[in-house]
Amino acid sequence: MSNKSFQILIIGGGAAGVTVASQLMKKNNNLRIAILEPSENHYYQPAWTLVGGGVYQFEDTVKHEDKLIPRGVTWIKDFAENVDPNQNQVTTKTGQIINYDYLVVCPGVQIKWDSITGFRDTVGKNNVTSNYVKEVVDYTWETINNFKGGTAIFTFPAGAIKCPGAPQKIMYMAEETFAKNGVRDKTKIIYANATGKMFGVPAYCKPLEEIVQRKGIEVKYGHNLIELKPDTQEAVFAVNDGENVTIKYDMIHVSPAMKAPDFISSSAIGNEGGWVDVDKFTCQHNQYPNIFALGDASSIPTSKTAAAIRKEAPVVVNNILALMAQQKPIDKYAGYACCPLVTGYGKTIMAEFDYTKEPTPSFPLDPTKERASMWLVKRYALPWIYWNRMLKGEPFEADSWRFLLK
Ligand SMILES: Cc1cc2nc3c(=O)[nH]c(=O)nc-3n(C[C@H](O)[C@H](O)[C@H](O)COP(=O)(O)OP(=O)(O)OC[C@H]3O[C@@H](n4cnc5c(N)ncnc54)[C@H](O)[C@@H]3O)c2cc1C
């Protein structure tokens, strides 16, 4: 058992953890910072939609953490297993105790496997797939491209998930692939959506309703997947009126329910839902002022996206540095998030919004329209920005990309 101390300890070396570490080091490279991250690899998950759609290589979404964790930051290759916010200590899976002055909690989300009976054993074979399960993202494309017709179901679960647009993006690409492969006429597509609407921001709901109608997709609202029966290829849904409904499928893309890692609720830094309990503007913990959270594991009521992290990270950094200088943490996150809604190959609605639930477009164009230019932003610009600007702690403003619109 070893005992280590850092000024700033970051739990999780994903989109949020690496971005925060890089920004902190850019502001002051004398800070003693550690990232606690068990995985050798870092994943650019936003491109998994494109991998599942057959237009991006999975390998291109992976980089070794060694190449991303900024020089001067200590990488502790281990899992956080407990946070003691009164002692300012984190205990890891291997029994290390790490002391911190300031803690940033961003370990992302996990799949709630037990929310769908049979899912864990079934996914990745027999035409059951999910872009949310990293091991089977390639299988999504295999399933869609080899589909011979029948019923194709795409699901959306109850509760908060990362990138809530992703469950329907893959459906639109599948629909086009079925048409290209000559099986669309013999295919019924169902969008089984546990919520009551196509998207949480009203301005983007209307165009999506028109798109599912245009594509002949049947939307079943209030249908929450609870069981898969692979032997009979049946999916069981709990529906709003308390009944269960069974639908036979020939392929199914599952978007499962998600939760923050268990150590958050067991460590008393979580809220009732198990998310790290922070102020939605300052990202500071509601009880422990030296703890901050951002990204998917936080209670911040925004769309869980890497795009949101791009705007949350500078707030976390500025507020920690303010506290270190005995000032008030006054920087505020306004709830910005962006969900590039891929509506087919070469078409995307760039859905940007904030806490007002109104569109906040970065480009001087009607953001509710499907555009080829926004597909190019999703396919080419955003991955580049992620690896080369965001994770390196560099500022990025959309203005510099306006040439794409010409
Ligand atoms: C299919 C799909 C499509 C998406 N599309 C988009 C999109 O178009 N646009 C967009 O902006 N976002 C999109 N996202 C969401 C985006 O990828 C996430 O919001 C983002 O990665 C969250 O960053 P994070 O740092 O909170 O978590 P992650 O990036 O998931 O990183 C969490 C890290 O914490 C580590 N960790 C886990 N448990 C522990 C522990 N106990 N101790 C220490 N470390 C731990 C993990 O190993 C991981 O490296 C998509 C995601 C998926 C899956």
Helix content percent band: 25-40%
The run of helices and strands is: EHEEHEEEEEEHEHEHEHEEEEEEHEHEEH
- Are there runs of 5+ residues with pLDDT below 50, and where? none
Radius of gyration, Cα only, in angstroms? 21 Å
Mean residue pLDDT:
96
CATH architecture annotation of the largest domain: 3-Layer(bba) Sandwich
Give the count of helical stretches.
9
Number of strands: 21
Walk me through the structure.
The chain has 406 residues and is of the alpha/beta class. The chain folds into 3 domains: 3-109 and 260-324, FAD/NAD(P)-binding domain; 113-258, FAD/NAD(P)-binding domain; 337-405, no CATH class. It contains 9 helices and 21 strands. The chain has helices at residues 15-27, 48-52, 119-122, 137-145, 166-180, 202-214, 262-266, 306-324, 372-390, and strands at 3-11, 33-36, 41-43, 62-64, 74-76, 80-84, 89-92, 97-105, 110-111, 128-129, 150-156, 187-193, 218-221, 223-229, 234-239, 244-248, 251-253, 258-259, 291-293, 337-344, 347-353. The strands form 6 sheets. Strands 1, 2, 5, 6, 7, 8 and 19 form a 7-stranded mixed β-sheet that branches. A hairpin with a 4-residue loop joins β6 (80-84) and β7. α1 packs parallel to α8. It starts with a strand and ends in a 16-residue tail after the last helix. Flavin-adenine dinucleotide (FAD) binds next to α1, α2 and α8. The site of flavin-adenine dinucleotide has 36 residues, from α1, α2 and α8. Residues 6-126, 206-305 form the FAD/NAD(P)-binding domain. InterPro entries: FAD/NAD-bd_sf, FAD/NAD-binding_dom, Sulphide_quinone_reductase.
